[in-house]
Amino acid sequence: MGVKSARSPTQSSVTAVCFDLDDTLYDYHAYARAGLRAAADRLAELTGEDYADELERLYFEESITSGTFDRLLDDHDLSPELLSECVEAYHDADTALSPYPETVSVLADLAEDYRLGVVTDGRGGHRKLHRLGLADTFESVVVAPAIDATKCDARPFEVALMDLAVPPDRVVFVGDDPRVDVPVPNELGMTTVRLRRGRFEDLAVPGDTAPPDYEIDSLDRLPAVL
């Protein structure tokens, strides 16, 4: 799969490739499972009860992916003060994560010719890269919450451009969520590649947003785009 627009990059013009992190380089569901397990362990220490199965059911079967812990605490009449304990445990989980099968080889190949960066809205981006074994892969890692921003703003992308010392028209940005991985990079003049994979695979591009320059269904198709 590859959808090409009139604005197509050439290998000689592109000097850097930046990536979203969650669901672009790895399956976010694995991160969520590990975090829920860590939160359940913390709750077990504090309450003596095991809520691991219920947390997974709420998140994965009932699709309560926002406010999961609030719902659990309400259902069991547990103290609201436990919420911060759950959230902290979720994000502090340190079990290893696995990149998508092709991620490591694709990044290794790209690193021979391009400068590589990450721009993520996800909390704890540096920790995730360590858990994925990718911490030394990128010259720039911009975690938007760490600079009080989101990918709806230009600032995280502009920081990456400064880190990599490249103009936007020489950068390809790859991400899975068309709501945040396409509009601002398009506006800045980057070439955009949507990875149709993960939680937002079937999400439509917002009506007021120009489409991405390319769409791919696997990272191993990216070198052909470049």
Automatic annotation (TrEMBL):
It comes from the Archaea. Coiled coil: none annotated. Gene3D superfamilies: 1.10.150.520, HAD superfamily/HAD-like. Keywords: Hydrolase, Magnesium, Metal-binding. One of its GO terms (molecular function) is phosphatase activity. PANTHER family: GLYCERALDEHYDE 3-PHOSPHATE PHOSPHATASE (PTHR46470:SF2), N-ACYLNEURAMINATE-9-PHOSPHATASE (PTHR46470). This is HAD family hydrolase.
